[in-house]
Fold SRCR domain-containing protein.
Amino acid sequence: GGSRCAGRVEVLHEGQWGTVCDDDWDEDDAAVVCRELRCGEAVDALDGDKGHFGPGSGPIWMNKVACNGSETALKNCRSAEWGVNNCGHDKDAGVTCSDSVRLMNGGSRCAGRVEVLQEGQWGTVCGVDWDEDDAAVVCRELRCGEAVNAPQYGHFGPGSGPIWMVGVRCSGSESILNDCESYGRGEQYCNHGHDAGVTCSG
């Protein structure tokens, strides 16, 4: 998935890693995975047929998972008998958690161009109106200390892919960038020469 907080869900059972079938897979199930991995909140519960994270291999251990959302581990959720299903790996479930932000091309994990993961694809954030309040939220989410700088216009080089967020307006108190207001996707308003960046103190 490109980060430890997004990808195909795999579970270890009887000493072997296997996947989870996407039958009845939903946000409650994804929330438990994100909590277990200490990856924040669930942003998306992905069906295998969307193909975001590709097919796995080995056993398909879990099917018809029915978490209530409060469990501390996926194995504590109700599900069909382990290893019993009629699924193929084209139905492997995936998750994107809120801690799906990274800083690229800055020489450390706490400095660089801001990139966010949405719909299984990494993209950038438009630097127009990007400020220290926005940068502070990114630094907090990445556990990188305080925001030192919030360069707006491609300071860390142009990214590629979608420009997922335009017109970001954080108050500075949010715990994750995904909680900040924005206009959403915006290639029509912005280009990668304006990609936002952050330098954190950590």
About this structure: DSSP finds two helices and twelve strands in the chain.
